[in-house]
Amino acid sequence: MNQCQKRIIAAVVVGIAIVSAIYIPIHKDAVVHTACVSLLLAVFLSGASLWQLENKVKEDYITNLAFPLALKSYLCVTAVMAVLFVLLDLTGVWAIQFSWYAALQVIIIGITAWKVLAIGAAQEAILQTGEQVQANVSNWKLILADVDAMLKTVPNDIRRDVSEVRDAIRYADPMSRPEVEPQEKEISAILGQLKETLRENKSDEAKKLCAQIKDAVADRANRLKILK
Fold first, then answer.
1. pLDDT (0 to 100) of residue 138
2. Residue 211 CA, distance from chain mean position
3. What is the rounded CA–CA span in Å between residue 194 and residue 214?
């Protein structure tokens, strides 16, 4: 158990202690009992949401942060209702019926549960979109990695041309689409030819291949602009 988890448990214990300290000495009736139960439930839900957030991996942190945020309105409304209804009941100004108080709590919990379910569905959609984006950019990243690796061993007389190829690929739109798949295959094929040419120290032919790659990258960029 880490320090954060210990603090969450301590906060829950303190919350229970505060509610109990207020509940024990006052006159008790159905309204007071309902207020006490609703406050204790709010304390437990707060601790559970923070515990869930603390145990999630970093990649899911943003989406799981929404669970505590969804409880914010529930906690505020529950606390205000408990204080208001208990004070009005104890002072004799007005006493809400137990059934109405319980019904309000059920409605608030239902709305909060709907928020949590909606957040869960949105989280799944966000993760699926993220995976799709990652898949669409991975191919272009691999092409860039090939050129970066090539630059480490390229001869000095062709280094400038290969650097221009690397910059053209680096600053191009990494998002791939089916419509530009032929251009990307062409770029990969020419890169393969470039590797073989560099191994054979054919500088003039390598420069021509670099020019072809830059033209293919520019063609791909133009097609992507049209598709947007």
1. 82
2. 40
3. 13
